[in-house]
Every structure is written in structure tokens, then in C-alpha cells.
Amino acid sequence: MTTEFLTAIARDAFLAFFVAVCWGVLFGTPGRVLWVAGLLGGCGHCFRFVLLDFGTGLILATLLASVLIGLAGIVFAHKVDNPPVVFTMPACITMVPGLYAYRSMLGGIKITDMDILHENPALLAEIAHNIMLTFSLLATLAIGISVSVLLFRKRSVRDISLGWK
Amino acid sequence: MTPVSRENVSVEQFADMALDVGVFLLASGAHCGRVFSNLKRLADRWGFPIHINPAFTGLTITVRDREQPERTVTRYHDAPPHNVHLAILTLFSRLSWRVLEERLPFSDVKRQIEAIKAKAGYNYWLVALAVGIACGSLCMLSGGDCRNALCAFTAAFAGAVLRVAVLRLRFNPMISFVAASFVTTVIAGADTIWHFGASPEATLATAVLYLVPGVPLINSVIDLIEGYLASALSRGLYAAFILLCIAAGMTFGITLLGIGNF
Q: Are A13 and A42 in contact (CB under 8 A)?
């Protein structure tokens, strides 16, 4: 636990906080609970950052982080009387796999040119890898947001008690 | 539970009200399970058994009168244009709980629904600013430095403003995604062309993220998990088409800047 590592974690959480709040504005999250979206986004994202640093795979780390966001969302839903989705959605979308989607797409543009493909046949493998990553990561975000449906046998989050309120 | 006071609300009246709420929820970004649970609470208040069939483009609902089983109505209503607005989900959720717990009268509920529907979203300049800050921050999270982030901020802000301007021209909404992603890509390509910043790739990859239909994509998977297959397919297809439009806009932009630079 060096100071450098802690600074990196703080930077990650700080930036993700802003991303989540701004996504909240884009999705029309009520103004009073924007801070919750930011808090969950910041905590979830830096939790993923720490997991990745300890050598966890990207997909597993994203899954654990989005499940953390989903569970924390249920707790906050009780506290501020909002459905959890209004803050878990912007918080989870901080981890949207933009870079991998972009690389898949750029590869797709490149292989429309046969010359480029002959020069670099490894492009196909790269595209396949990036597409699979993109879809897997999207699925993990959805699992995190719908964690209340998957883990609890209740119709509404209001009926879920996590032991403290 | 207090006994249900029916107030002589007819099945037709209730069906219309439920449709009104249901399509508005769908268009605001609620997944089908949420639409169903909200409508179920409203129906339980007046003791109507209901069945709903949510689709992405509209909602079919069947309401039966428990006391006169031969009186059944089935109605369909188109959804208004989809526009994600999560505050609406909060307001309808609270309203449906209050209707059930406090036994609100029908006329009062109708009035409150109208009030919720009239609720305005955030000002679009504010949204554009937020989008810029989000994409700039994501750029830094993806390995860019301050100069890359500034580039991503400018590109996303300009694209967001342009998208609303194009939408107001009443073209097919998909055109706005192509136009916005094209403009964003061209502006975000600046650091790639002039070689500044630590990671120009991060700028291009993150500047268009505000266009990614995250809510429909994630709702599609949630619907899939909950078994609303028709809706899951339509949402997935809608999101996939938007992604395709973004890719098309980026392709134009990248081709214009010269594919060899990337």
C-alpha cells in the first residue's frame, strides 16, 4: 500500500464520481439523489480498479464491482426512497466498455480493405476478442443492476431487507 | 388492509389510466418488470385483475371486472417517443405505492399522473455540459491526460448540442446519432492528427460514449432475465441499431481524417 497506489485509487474514484453524476444528469436522475449515483459510481469503479491491480480478470472484476453497486443501490433505495435503478444505472454505466467497442469497430472498418487484412491477419483475432469483451462486460453491468431480481425472491425492492436500514 | 372502495370506477376508465401510465413508463426507460409491478399496485387498489403485454413500441392491457366477469376490456396504446428520464420512474413508483397504501380517489390519481407527465427534464445545455465532463473524465480513466480529456470534452459537448439541433429538424432520430457521432469523431481526432496528449486513442473511444444507448441495452438484458422476451428483443435491436449508427458516423469521420492515422 504505497502512497502512489492510494493516490491512483483516489484519482480513479474521484473521476468516476463525476462520470456517474454526469450520466445521472443525462438520464434524468432526480437532482436530490445525483450524489448517490456519484458515490456508487466512484466506489464501484475504484473497487474494480483495486481488483484489477490485484490481478483479477477484467470481466470478473467488473462483475463484482457492478454487483457491489447493485447491492449498495438497494440499501440507498430505502434511505432516500427512490427505486435503485435511478442511481445504479448511471453508476454502472461508468464502466461501459467503450474502448473495446471502439477497437472492435475500428477493426471492422480496417478489414473492409483486403490489403490491410493481408498485411495484418491478426486483426480478425483482435476483433473477435474485443467483441467478446464488449458483450461480456455489458452483460455483467446488467447483472449488477438487476441483482435485486436475481438474488432475492421479491417483487419489489421495498420488501428486501439487508439487515440494516 | 382496508376494504377496497370501488368508487364505481369502470374497467374502461381504469384500463385507460393504466395504459397512460404504462406507456409513459416504457418511454422513460423502465424495464417491463417495473411497468408490471407499478400497474399491478394501481390495479390492486381498485381490485382489478390485470394482464399486460409490454412491447417496446406500445402496451396491451387486459382488465377484468371481478364482480362482473363478462366485463373485460383489452386495449392497446402506442408508446410516445423514447426518451430516458429516470425521475419519472421514481415519481410513478412513489405514486403507485401511495395509491395502494392510502387508497387515493381515482380523480386525484388522474390529476397526479398529469402532473408527473408534465415534469420537465434537465435543460439541454446542462445535459451537454454534463456529457462533456463525463466523456472527459472517462478519457482520463482510459489512460488519457488533461489535453486528451479537454479534446474529448469539446467533442462530446459539441456533438450533444448538435444532436438536439438535428432532432429539432424532425429528421428520423437515427440521423441525429450519425451526425453527432461524425462531428464528435472529427473533433476528437484532433489529438490523433496533431499528436498531442498521452493517449489519443482514448479520446476517440470515450468521446462518443454519451451516444451509447446504455439504458435500452441494459433493460434488454433485464427483460431477458425476467422473461419479457419480445421486449428484450426489440430493445436489443433498437440499441444495436443506434450502435450501428454511431459506428457509421465514426466511420465517416475516421475515413475523412484518413484511416492510416489510426
A: yes
Supply the pTM of this predicted model: 0.90
Tell whether B100 lies on the interface with A, counting CB pairs under 8 A: no
Q: Which residues of B touch A103 (CB under 8 A)?
A: 205
Enter the DSSP assignment of B105.
Answer: -
DSSP state of B199: -
The helix (H) or strand (E) run that includes residue B51 is: strand B50-54
Residue A97 cell numbers, joined? 466498455
**B251: exposed, middle or buried (C-beta count within 10 Å: 0-12, 13-18, 19+)?**
buried
**What order of strands is seen across the sheet that includes strand B58-64?**
B50-54, B58-64, B72-78
pLDDT of residue B191: 85
Q: Is the sign of the CA dihedral A151, A154, A160, A163 positive or negative?
A: negative
User: Is residue B208 helix, strand or coil?
Assistant: coil
Q: How far is CA A41 from CA A8, A18, A67, B149, in A?
A: 16, 9, 12, 19
Q: What is the pLDDT of residues A100-127, one digit of tens each?
A: 888 888 888 889 889 889 998 999 999 9
CA distance B28 to chain A (A): 9
Q: How many CB atoms lie within 10 A of CB B77?
A: 18
> Within a 10 A sphere around the Cβ of B234, how many other Cβ atoms?
18
Per-residue pLDDT for B155 more than 70?
yes
Tens digits of residue pLDDT in B173-215: 999 999 999 999 999 998 888 878 778 888 988 999 999 998 9
The sign of the dihedral angle between the CA atoms of B232, B233, B235, B241 is positive
**Of B87, B210, B226, Cβ closest to residue A29:** B87
Contact B51, B58 (CB under 8 A): no
Residues 31-90 of B with CB under 8 A from A: 31, 33-34, 37, 40, 84-90
| B206 to chain A: closest CA residue | A98
Local structure of B122: helix, strand or coil: coil
